[in-house]
Amino acid sequence: MRQVVQHFPLLARHRPACLPLPARIRNLTGLAEQAEATRDQGTASAVLNQAALLASDTGAAEYAQRLCRDQAHIFLASGPLDGPTAIRALEPIINLGRLHTRAGAPDEARSNLAHLAEAIRTRTEATIHGVTISSRLVVDDLGRQEVLAWLWRVTLADGTRTLTTQGRWQEALEHVRAHRGIGNRMLDGRQVAVAAHLMLQDQQAATALVAATQAGEPWENDVTALLAATCRQATVGHLSEPTVQHLVHLGSREHEPGRTVFATRLALAAHAQLRAHPVTAVAAQHLQALIRRRVLAAADGYAAWDALAHLPVTGPETSALRELVDLCALGRGLPTEHRVVLDTATAIAADTIRASLR
Asked: What's the superkingdom here (predicted)?
């Protein structure tokens, strides 16, 4: 069961592919130049957010932290801010929390997230991850409500993830309940609640949640179907032939560009369910081969990393996946020549933000 639920929650958010490092840096440079030409604060912020993520992906954690703090200070020096701009000011602070989670300090990240939300709610000064946030960050009540609504979504998603990645399912369930995050559709809060009940061996509660789920977008319905199969397997101990075929279908389904990681994780969860039973081994092998081919075709380092972490280490395609991860420099360090180019791109983005705040 753990091998299946570890992939949840599954959310089909669009995210840029993790391309080979030179291409990724070229794209960021182009985005920085676009932000400068259009004087677009949002695009410039995206450059800095993505640059910090790139640095973290390569293992340059201190550089990533510096980028986040510098970005936050640019915005915070210009307060008070309207709602959307205040959110952009806080994005790098949220990213600092994610860096802490990656570094093995998820409880600190979750605690700081709660502290930040309370500071905004009560209009008090706070120091979060070494960055001081003024009590007058937001210019008016309307903007403050925008920020708090955004922080609620972040707290639900990031706070829950800090618990599920440690296998603390009871606390994760309490967290989504406390933040009124279960909802009626199969979004992250409801997925976590179902997974938590399964891990706590309360199949009846998990099954009831799945059965009462309101239909949503096609990808949500796919996740609901996958969790329904997981509940049935947990209850009766085996998979029927129609369920096996449906799992293969779910794992094989094509998804729109920008959802490669979601599609890969959905397929990996289906594969984990099939792989758990000898009688479904052939179906698992079929899905396993399809996942590898699809990830290699997408050339997405994040998806390749996931595939290597969760699929058997066999066959020539495994070597190709490793090569893709190496090309993307995931955990391999940030070479000096690439860092110099990244410094230039982030400087352009930072200057664009400063100009927009004058």
From this structure: Bacteria
